[in-house]
């Protein structure tokens, strides 16, 4: 049984940081989800004085808030 490839959405900020979302075929509002992820990135990662560009994102507040957004707004963001 073959499965069609999953859609891949991406965004690139001015610094070159790339964000990717892999979802089910037909999932709506992925552009909105990428915007929310970018807002969380700017709020919790870029404003973190210990974060260094080009390093993996290791920010507990970013992870926590991203998980909350996905769980809380799943219906609004993912259309389910």
From TrEMBL:
<keyword id="KW-0931">ER-Golgi transport</keyword>
<keyword id="KW-0333">Golgi apparatus</keyword>
<comment type="similarity">
    <text>Belongs to the TRAPP small subunits family. TRAPPC4 subfamily.</text>
</comment>
<comment type="subunit">
    <text>Part of the multisubunit transport protein particle (TRAPP) complex.</text>
</comment>
<keyword id="KW-0256">Endoplasmic reticulum</keyword>
<dbReference type="GO" id="GO:0005794">
    <property type="term" value="C:Golgi apparatus"/>
</dbReference>
<dbReference type="InterPro" id="IPR011012">
    <property type="entry name" value="Longin-like_dom_sf"/>
</dbReference>
<dbReference type="GO" id="GO:0006888">
    <property type="term" value="P:endoplasmic reticulum to Golgi vesicle-mediated transport"/>
</dbReference>
<keyword id="KW-0813">Transport</keyword>
<dbReference type="Pfam" id="PF04099">
    <property type="entry name" value="Sybindin"/>
</dbReference>
<dbReference type="GO" id="GO:0005783">
    <property type="term" value="C:endoplasmic reticulum"/>
</dbReference>
<protein>
    <recommendedName>
        <fullName>Trafficking protein particle complex subunit</fullName>
    </recommendedName>
</protein>
<dbReference type="GO" id="GO:0030008">
    <property type="term" value="C:TRAPP complex"/>
</dbReference>
<dbReference type="InterPro" id="IPR007233">
    <property type="entry name" value="TRAPPC"/>
</dbReference>
